[in-house]
Amino acid sequence: MKKSIVIIPTYNEKENISLIMDSVFSLYQDVHVLIVDDNSPDGTALIVEDYQKRFSNRLFIEKRAGKQGLGTAYIHGFKWALMREYDYVFEMDADFSHNPADLHKLYSACELGADLAIGSRYVKGVNVVNWPMSRILLSYGASRYVRWITRMQIHDTTAGFVCYKASLLRRFNLNKIKFVGYAFQIEMKFKAWLLKAKIVEVPVIFTDRSRGNSKMSGGIISEAVFGVLKMKISSLLGKLDI
């Protein structure tokens, strides 16, 4: 997995951050990690900076002034990675809901020709562990809703465990990505689809966090529901910036 970087946004992840870094670095000897921390009050950034003493050439951190949203954290990370000529750029959560051992599956899909590989919970049934039924229905229903509105043939449209070829990211106008919450994941996939990128879904098992707190909120859900509809209408009118 050479010339690959894993971007991990963080906000109050002190219970997970050292464990996730240990896992990635022990599994992959040549993968780099970029932490984008939104000024976590719990000291997440301090833990990362301490780890940099051991992994100075593989571990990087970008500290932002405050909590600005998942989407803007990834856009910040994408721009950082593209300036440094990485070939493969991953998105992954810090809380082990995404299994670091599955990174190679996404990498392999891109090596075999995909522009965007998605770690999918729903491409083969429902592969989610430790979520209440209400959360599963919300997530699965959201993906079905997005498929219906956008007509994308993607089963897990809200997935946040992905690998982009840098060549695809360079085709986006990253300054025109509008969503800041989880709808950011939908927007990126929709625009990749409009760019006729080759998108492949790789089945993975999603496990709910056992440490720390979820960042899901009502505002994030509202952005996804109404934002997707507005995005689709804009694309039909030829007014969507890609």
Describe the fold and architecture.
The protein is an alpha/beta fold. The protein is 39% helix and 17% strand. The chain contains 8 helices and 9 strands. It has helices spanning 17-27, 44-51, 70-83, 103-111, 133-150, 166-169, 183-194, 218-236; strands at residues 4-10, 32-37, 59-63, 88-91, 116-120, 128-129, 162-165, 199-203, 206-207. The strands form 2 sheets. It has a 7-stranded mixed β-sheet, with helices on both faces. It is globular and about 50 Å long. It starts with a strand and ends in a 6-residue tail after the last helix. The mean pLDDT is 91. GO terms for molecular function: dolichyl-phosphate beta-D-mannosyltransferase activity.
Summary?
This protein is α/β, with parallel strands linked by helices and 242 residues long.
Name the descriptors.
single chain; 242 residues; alpha/beta; Spore Coat Polysaccharide Biosynthesis Protein SpsA, Chain A; 7-stranded mixed β-sheet; two-stranded parallel ribbon; Glyco_trans_2-like; transferase; Dolichyl-phosphate beta-D-mannosyltransferase
